[in-house]
Amino acid sequence: DAGVTQSPTHLIKTRGQHVTLRCSPISGHKSVSWYQQVLGQGPQFIFQYYEKEERGRGNFPDRFSARQFPNYSSELNVNALLLGDSALYLCASSTIKGGNNEQFFGPGTRLTVL
Amino acid sequence: GQSLEQPSEVTAVEGAIVQINCTYQTSGFYGLSWYQQHDGGAPTFLSYNALDGLEETGRFSSFLSRSDSYGYLLLQELQMKDSASYFCAVPDYQAGTALIFGKGTTLSVSS
């Protein structure tokens, strides 16, 4: 079975631009979460979606938005990019119902803002 | 708020045993997870403790003491491939089932 997939793998943008990152969860997983990981830090929660509805939001500005589609794939959008948005953006899927709350992470999208 | 503290770096030699500690402060507690992340890779799930005690999975074990807000990951018979970052994490059920991660411990295994 395919794992979580993300596209693109790498992206270079300039300040002020916007970016759209995409994620396809593991088949059967209805929950998708987005995390930002800057170098040397742990992943920081941005959004979680379940059954196309936002279930949680981390402490990120309104420039960050996301949505989930009927096939449970998801997009993360970031507007008005800042240098500080340079990071690895990770998508994770889960079943929600699992007792161990295991999150399955994709390989990430490395975003560089110049 | 929620916070997790873990050492930033640990070094060890092949074949040794290493323990990575994690202390947490949470508003509500539902369990402690551990994830491994190799350089440039995706975090992968290692273990989850919801109750006090030791959980063993092969060379890796994880321990939890809810009364002490403390847990650790124990790695035995270290191999070079265990060189990676290790993160403890707790679910934040105010945000769905999202995970709050510690800053991570970089483990370097030398021969």
Keywords:
heterodimer, A: about 110 residues, mainly beta, 7-stranded mixed beta sheet, 4-stranded antiparallel beta sheet, 11 strands, about 50% strand, globular, B: about 110 residues, 6-stranded mixed beta sheet, 5-stranded antiparallel beta sheet, about 0% helix
Proportion of residues in helical segments of chain B: under 10%
Question: How many strand elements of chain A?
Answer: 11
Largest sheet of chain A: 7 strands, mixed
Portion in strands of chain B: over 45%
Q: Distance N terminus to C terminus of chain A?
A: 37 Å
**H-E order of chain B:** EEEEEEEEEEE
Largest sheet of chain B: 6 strands, mixed
Shape of chain B: globular
**Element-level helix/strand string of chain A:** EEEEEEEEEEE
Q: Could you give the distance between the termini of chain B? A: 41 Å
- Sheet/helix structural class of chain B: mainly beta
* Helix count from the secondary structure assignment of chain B: 0
Folded structure, characterized:
The complex is a heterodimer of chains A (114) and B (111). In chain A, strand 4 (31-37) and strand 5 form a beta hairpin. Chain A has no helices and 11 strands. In chain A, the strands form 2 sheets. In chain A, strands 2, 4, 5, 6, 9, 10 and 11 form a 7-stranded mixed sheet that branches. Chain A is globular and about 40 Å long. In chain A, 0% of the residues lie in helices and 50% in strands. Chain B is an all-beta fold and 111 residues long. In chain B, 0% of the residues lie in helices and 58% in strands. In chain B, strands 2, 4, 5, 9, 10 and 11 form a 6-stranded mixed sheet that branches. The mean pLDDT of chain B is 94.
Show the helix and strand layout.
The complex is a heterodimer of chains A (114) and B (111).
Chain A: E1 5-7, E2 10-13, E3 19-24, E4 31-37, E5 44-50, E6 53-57, E7 64-68, E8 74-78, E9 87-94, E10 104-105, E11 109-113
Parallel strand pairs in A: 2-11
Antiparallel strand pairs in A: 1-3, 3-8, 4-5, 4-9, 5-6, 7-8, 9-10, 9-11
Chain B: E1 3-5, E2 9-13, E3 18-25, E4 32-37, E5 44-49, E6 53-57, E7 60-65, E8 70-75, E9 84-92, E10 98-101, E11 105-110
Parallel strand pairs in B: 2-11
Antiparallel strand pairs in B: 1-3, 3-8, 4-5, 4-9, 6-7, 7-8, 9-10, 9-11
